[in-house]
Design brief:
The complex is a heterodimer of chains A (159) and B (615).
Chain A lengths: L2 E5 L9 H11 L10 E5 L4 E5 L8 H5 L5 E3 L6 E3 L9 H5 L6 E3 L4 E3 L9 H5 L5 E5 L5 H18 L1
Antiparallel strand pairs in A: 1-8, 2-3, 4-5, 6-7
Chain B lengths: L5 E6 L4 E6 L2 H7 L2 H12 L13 E5 L13 E6 L6 E6 L3 H7 L4 E5 L6 E6 L2 E6 L8 H11 L6 E4 L2 H4 L7 E3 L3 E3 L4 H7 L2 E7 L9 H17 L1 H10 L4 H8 L20 H4 L11 E5 L9 E4 L18 E2 L3 H9 L6 H14 L3 H16 L5 H4 L9 H12 L3 H6 L3 H7 L8 E2 L2 E2 L9 H9 L12 H4 L15 H18 L11 H11 L6 H22 L10 H5 L14 H12 L9 H6 L3
Parallel strand pairs in B: 1-6, 7-12
Antiparallel strand pairs in B: 1-2, 3-4, 3-6, 4-5, 7-8, 9-10, 9-12, 10-11, 13-14, 14-15, 16-17
Helix pairs in contact in B: 1-2, 2-20, 2-22, 7-21, 11-12, 11-13, 12-15, 13-17, 18-20, 18-24, 20-22, 20-24
Classes of the chains: A alpha+beta (159), B alpha+beta (615).
Chain lengths: 159, 615
C-alpha cells in the first residue's frame, strides 16, 4: 500500500517541529531554512498551514528536468532528486506549480520532500497529528469521518 | 556543540559590530541565556550604574538548547540592569526570534553604549550592520516589524523591537518579537530605548548541531511524551492556556483584586478561559480564535484572540479587527482583577495595545489599579487625569490609559512611571503593590504563602516566574503543600528558584516544569552539550546563578531590607474565601530562607556558600 502525507491545517499550532525533524533527517542539523516542509503563519487570521510536496503522479518537476535528475521511487511514490545528477539549473523550480521544490545555495542542488524512504520524519514529529502519513487511496478518510459524524448528529437532532 | 560559540558585540556609540568567541569556561559554569549573560553583565558593568545611561549594557541571549528539537527550545532572554527596578533584569521571551539568533550564528548579542541617532541592527548569517531607523522611530512595534520585513523584501526576517513607550521612557516598556511575544518585565525595553536602538532583525540559515545526536534525539523524544501525557501540559494548557488558572486561583482566595484590597474578584468568570471560549451573540464567534505554539513547542499554550467588532474600542478601527496574541492569565488578571474590570473585549484591546506599543501588561494594569485606589480616595482627581474618571471597574479608563501609556501621553505617561514612583509622587507609597519597584503578578501572597517569600526574594523584583510555588501549593506539582502554611516554604522556594534559574539558562520554557523534573531536563542538556550536565550539576549551576544575581543586587545597593512585601500584605487580613483572615507570614519564612540559602541573617551569601557554589 502506498502512503501519502495528509495535512490538516486546523490542527497545526505553528511549532515547526516538522521543520526541525525534516532538516535533521536530511541535513543532520536542526535548520528550518533547509526543511522540505514549511509552516506558514497567517498571523492576523490566527492560522498555521504546513505545506510540502504532494508527490504528483505526472510530476512537473520530473518532466521539466533536462538531465533526468528526478526519478520516481516506485515503492513510496516519491519523486526523488539525485544530487549526483542535478546540475542546479532550477528549471524544476519554475515548472512546479506549488513551489515545493527549491534551490539549496549551500549544495548547489535543488531539494524537495522524498518521504524519508517511507517514514516521513515530519509526520512522526508533529505533536498534534496535523501531519499524518496515510493510505494514498484514502487521504480524505478522516475528513469524511468527521463530516459523516456531523451529518449524522444533525440528522439525529432533527429526528 | 549546541552553543554557536560566538558572541556579537555591538557598540552603539561607535557603531561597530564585532564577533568574539564565547567564553566556554563560563558556559560550563553558567550554561547559557540567563546564567551566562548574567555572568557577562556582572563582569562588564558597574552594578551601581544608572540603568538608562550608556554605561549600562543589554544582552540578548539564547541557551544551548535554543534551536534544537527539544520541546519549547526557542527561547531567548534579555539581561540588563532593569529600568523599573535598578536590579538585575532578565526577561524571557518565546516566539521565533531566539531560534533565528542561533541560526544566524550567535549565542548572544551584547549591546553597549548609546547610538547618536535611532538605529536598528540587521544580522544575516554571521554578518551584521547598524542601519538608520529614523523612519521607524515614533512608530509601534507592529509597524516596525512589518516595515523592516518589507523594506528588506524578506518576510522570513525575525524582528524584536520597542514601541513608542520604550522610546519615551515608560519604565516598564518591553521588547516585542514576532508581533505578540515579549521580553516583558522590569523595563528591558526602556533600556533598549535609552540606547536609541529601535529594533533587531535577524535571518539565520546556519543550523544548530548537538554533541551526541542519537542520545539527544532519544532524550528529547522521551521528554515530549512526558509533556503530552501530563494533564497540565498535555491538556489544560493547550485547551485553556494559562487562563485555566483564573477561576482556580479565585476559588483559592488568592486572586488579588482592586490593588490587593480584596483577594477574590466577583467578575473573575467573565474574564476567564471559559469566557474566552463562549460564543458571542453579536457575531457568533468566540474571543479565542485558536491556540498557538512558540518555536518548537509541543504544548502550544498561546492564545490568539479577536475583539468583537462593534465593541466601543474598535468600532471604527478595522486595523484591530484581526487575530492577535490574546489574554494570558497574568495579563487578564492585571488588566482585569487588579482594576475590577470584567469586560473581556476591553481587556483584549488593552492587551493588543500593550503588544503594539511594547509595554508590560502586568505592571501597567497593576499601576492603573493603584491609581484607581488613589482616585477613589480623592488623592488623584480628574484635574490630574485630564478628565478620566478613574473608578474601579471602568473599562473606558483602562483602554484610554493603555493608548496614552503606549505613547507616553497625558495621564498615561504618569502611569508609565510604574506604581512605586506614581504612588510616591502622590504621597501614598504604601499603595504600590510591588517589590523592588516591580509590581506583583496574579497571586495573593496572603492566600499562597510561598509566593510571598518568592516575591520578596526574587532577584528581579516581584515575579511569579522566579519560583512558581503555586505549582506545589495549588496544583500539587510535584507534591501538594498547604498554601496557607509557612512551614517548609523556605526550602520549597529555594528549590523552585534554583531549578528555574537553570531552565531559564537552557533555552527551554519554564512551563515544561509542570511536567518535567530535572530528571527529564538534564539528559537533554547533557546530550546536547559538552561537559557533565548531570542532574546534580544542573541543580548546583542553578544555585550558582541565583547567588550571582543576588550578589549583583547587593553590589547595586540592595540589602536584606528590600526582601519585603507592602504593608497591606503584612497587616491587612484577607476578607473572604478559603484564605480569609490571613496575612503574609514573611517574617517567619525569611530567616528560614536565608538559613537554607546559607546566607547571613542580613541576607548576604556567606563566604562558605560562595565557595560551595563556586563563585
Amino acid at each position: 500500500m502506498q502512503k501519502s502525507l495528509s495535512i490538516d491545517p486546523g490542527k497545526c499550532t505553528g511549532c515547526q517541529q516538522c521543520e526541525l525533524a525534516c532538516s535533521f533527517d536530511n541535513e543532520g542539523v536542526f535548520n528550518p531554512s533547509k526543511s522540505r516542509i514549511k509552516v506558514f503563519n497567517f498571523h492576523d487570521q490566527g492560522r498555521f498551514v504546513p505545506y510540502t510536496c504532494t508527490q504528483c503522479d505526472e510530476a512537473w518537476c520530473l518532466h521539466a528536468c533536462p538531465v533526468d535528475a528526478i526519478s520516481l521511487d516506485v515503492v513510496t511514490g516519491a519523486k526523488i532528486v539525485s544530487d549526483a545528477v542535478c546540475v542546479g539549473c532550477k528549471v524544476c523550480t519554475i515548472a512546479c506549480p506549488f513551489g515545493t521544490i527549491n534551490y539549496n545555495q549551500s549544495t548547489g542542488k535543488v531539494m524537495k520532500c522524498d518521504l524519508c524512504e517511507g517514514e516521513p520524519a515530519c509526520a512522526d514529529a508533529c505533536p498534534t497529528d496535523a501531519i499524518t502519513f496515510v493510505d494514498s487511496n484514502w487521504t480524505g478518510l478522516e475528513k469524511m469521518r468527521s463530516w459523516a459524524e456531523k451529518t449524522d448528529a444533525a440528522l439525529q437532532a432533527g429526528a | 556543540m549546541a552553543w554557536a560559540r560566538k558572541i556579537l558585540r555591538v557598540n552603539l556609540t561607535s557603531g561597530t559590530c564585532v564577533d568574539e568567541a564565547l567564553n566556554m569556561d563560563w558556559a560550563q559554569k553558567y550554561l547559557g541565556q540567563r546564567g551566562l549573560a548574567t555572568k557577562y553583565l556582572t563582569e562588564e558593568i558597574d552594578p551601581k550604574v544608572d540603568p538608562l545611561s550608556p554605561e549600562n549594557k543589554m544582552i540578548m541571549a539564547t541557551g544551548p538548547l535554543t534551536g534544537t528539537c527539544a520541546s519549547t527550545a526557542g527561547r531567548y532572554s534579555v539581561i540588563t540592569k532593569g529600568a523599573l527596578t535598578g536590579a538585575i533584569a532578565c526577561s524571557n521571551s518565546g516566539g521565533f526570534f531566539g531560534n533565528e539568533m542561533k541560526n544566524a550564528g550567535f549565542d548572544m548579542i551584547i549591546f553597549e553604549g548609546k547610538s547618536p541617532k535611532p538605529v536598528y541592527l540587521l544580522v544575516q548569517d554571521g554578518s551584521s550592520e547598524l542601519i538608520d531607523a529614523a523612519e521607524y522611530w515614533g512608530t509601534s512595534c507592529w509597524n516596525t516589524e512589518e516595515g523592516i520585513k518589507s523594506k528588506h523584501g524578506d518576510p522570513l526576517l525575525r524582528v524584536a523591537s520597542i514601541g513608542i513607550s520604550g522610546e519615551k521612557g515608560v519604565k516598564f516598556a518591553c521588547i516585542v518579537n514576532d508581533m505578540d511575544r515579549a521580553a516583558g518585565r522590569s523595563g528591558v525595553g526602556t533600556v533598549m530605548g535609552s540606547k536609541n536602538l529601535k529594533a533587531v532583525a535577524l535571518r539565520g540559515t546556519l543550523g544548530v548541531k548537538v554533541d551526541d545526536a542519537s542520545t539527544f534525539m532519544a532524550a528529547a523524544a522521551a521528554a515530549k511524551v512526558v509533556l503530552a501525557e501530563n494533564a497540565v501540559t498535555g491538556q489544560g494548557l493547550p485547551a485553556f492556556g494559562t487562563q485555566v488558572l483564573m477561576n482556580v486561583i479565585n476559588e483559592t482566595g488568592a486572586l488579588p483584586t482592586r490593588n490587593h484590597r480584596d483577594s477574590q474578584f466577583e467578575g473573575a468568570n467573565n474574564i476567564s478561559a471559559e469566557a474566552m471560549a463562549e460564543v458571542r451573540p453579536s457575531d457568533g464567534k468566540t474571543n479565542l480564535i485558536t491556540n498557538a505554539a512558540c518555536f518548537g513547542c509541543t504544548i502550544a499554550c498561546g492564545r490568539v484572540s479577536s475583539i468583537e467588532r462593534d465593541h466601543y474600542t474598535v468600532k471604527d478601527r478595522p486595523e484591530y479587527h484581526i487575530a492577535s496574541g490574546g489574554l494570558e492569565y497574568e495579563a487578564a488578571w492585571a488588566l482585569g482583577a487588579a482594576t475590577g474590570i470584567d469586560d473581556i473585549n476591553a481587556l483584549t484591546f488593552a492587551n493588543f495595545i500593550c503588544n503594539e506599543q511594547g509595554f508590560d501588561p502586568i505592571s501597567f494594569g497593576a499601576t492603573v489599579g493603584a491609581a484607581m485606589e488613589m482616585f477613589e480616595d480623592g488623592i488623584i482627581t480628574t484635574k490630574e487625569t485630564g478628565g478620566i474618571e478613574l473608578k474601579w471597574g471602568s473599562a473606558e479608563a483602562l483602554t484610554t490609559l493603555a493608548e496614552q501609556c503606549g505613547k507616553a501621553e497625558g495621564f498615561g505617561a504618569e502611569i508609565g512611571l510604574g506604581s512605586k514612583l506614581l504612588c510616591a509622587k502622590y504621597g501614598r507609597p504604601e499603595l504600590s503593590m510591588s517589590v523592588k519597584g516591580q509590581e506583583f503578578p496574579a497571586y495573593d501572597a496572603r492566600g499562597i504563602q510561598g509566593m510571598g517569600l518568592a516575591y520578596a526574594t526574587s532577584n528581579r523584583g516581584a515575579c511569579h516566574l522566579r519560583g512558581y510555588t503555586v505549582a506545589s501549593e495549588v496544583l500539587g506539582i510535584p507534591e501538594k503543600t498547604d498554601p496557607l502554611a509557612t512551614d517548609g516554604k523556605a526550602g520549597l522556594v529555594k528549590a523552585f528558584q534554583d531549578a528555574t534559574a537553570l531552565v531559564d539558562s537552557a533555552g527551554i520554557c519554564v512551563f515544561t516544569t509542570f511536567a518535567w523534573s530535572m530528571d527529564d531536563i538534564a539528559p537533554q542538556i547533557d546530550a546536547a552539550c559538552e561537559g557533565d550536565w548531570s542532574v546534580e550539576n544542573c541543580m548546583s549551576a542553578g544555585e550558582r546563578i541565583w547567588n550571582l544575581e543576588r550578589k549583583f543586587n547587593l553590589d547595586a545597593g540592595f540589602t536584606g531590607k528590600d526582601d519585603n512585601l507592602p504593608k497591606r500584605l503584612m497587616k491587612d487580613a484577607t476578607k473572604s474565601g478559603p484564605a480569609e483572615g490571613k496575612t503574609s507570614g514573611l517574617d517567619k519564612m525569611l530567616p528560614e530562607y536565608y538559613a537554607v540559602r546559607g546566607w547571613t541573617k542580613d541576607g548576604i551569601p556567606s563566604n562558605e556558600t560562595l565557595n560551595r557554589v563556586a563563585l
